[in-house]
């Protein structure tokens, strides 16, 4: 073998086209609904990390990171940490770094680790929103992700999502 370039891949097999098509539909429906609700309600329902949450919720719905506890709890906790750090320490390079680290710590301790939520403290530091940001877009948007994930994933395979709530 030429430097191991032609070895069989250890990466998992690609899912079926049907599975990927359903993942595509779930992501489009979720982001479309949150974007539309933002437009019609004049309240934000959408932040960039929700795109990554859709990758987990529809692409890897069996993952612990894709369960409702992690999607909702992880985003809420990480955002709360970001808001607290912003209020107590302001926006600086070190408070951003500490906020992300503290968010991970808090998610680990509450068993709500959700990788996309790790970006929320940085979103908070950048936007500098008020405390209402926890409700919209964070809580409302994550509930939308979970609701659509429940519907789409259970259409794909009845009773498959979520694996657990608590």
UniProtKB/TrEMBL annotation:
InterPro entries in the record: HPP, TM_HPP
Pfam families, per the entry: TM_HPP
Taxonomic superkingdom: Bacteria
Membrane-spanning residues: 17-37, 43-60, 72-94, 131-153
Residue ranges of domain HPP transmembrane region in the record: 14-162
Keyword annotations from UniProtKB, A to Z: Membrane, Transmembrane, Transmembrane helix
Protein name (Swiss-Prot/TrEMBL): HPP family protein
Organism the protein comes from: Duganella fentianensis
């Amino acid at each position: 073998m030429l430097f191991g370039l032609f070895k069989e891949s250890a990466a998992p097999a690609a899912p079926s086209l049907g599975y990927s098509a359903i993942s595509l539909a779930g992501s489009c429906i979720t982001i479309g609904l949150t974007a539309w609700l933002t437009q019609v309600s004049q309240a934000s329902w959408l932040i960039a990390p929700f795109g990554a949450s859709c990758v987990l919720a529809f692409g890897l719905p069996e993952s612990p990171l894709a369960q409702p506890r992690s999607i909702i709890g992880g985003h809420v906790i990480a955002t709360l940490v970001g808001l607290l750090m912003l209020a107590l320490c302001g926006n600086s390079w070190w408070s951003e770094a500490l906020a992300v680290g503290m968010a991970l710590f808090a998610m680990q301790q509450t068993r709500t680790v959700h990788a996309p939520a790790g970006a929320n403290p940085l979103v908070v530091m950048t936007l500098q929103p008020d405390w209402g940001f926890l409700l919209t877009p964070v809580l409302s948007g994550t509930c939308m992700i979970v609701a659509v994930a429940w519907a789409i994933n259970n259409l794909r395979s009845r009773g498959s999502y979520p694996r657990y709530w608590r």
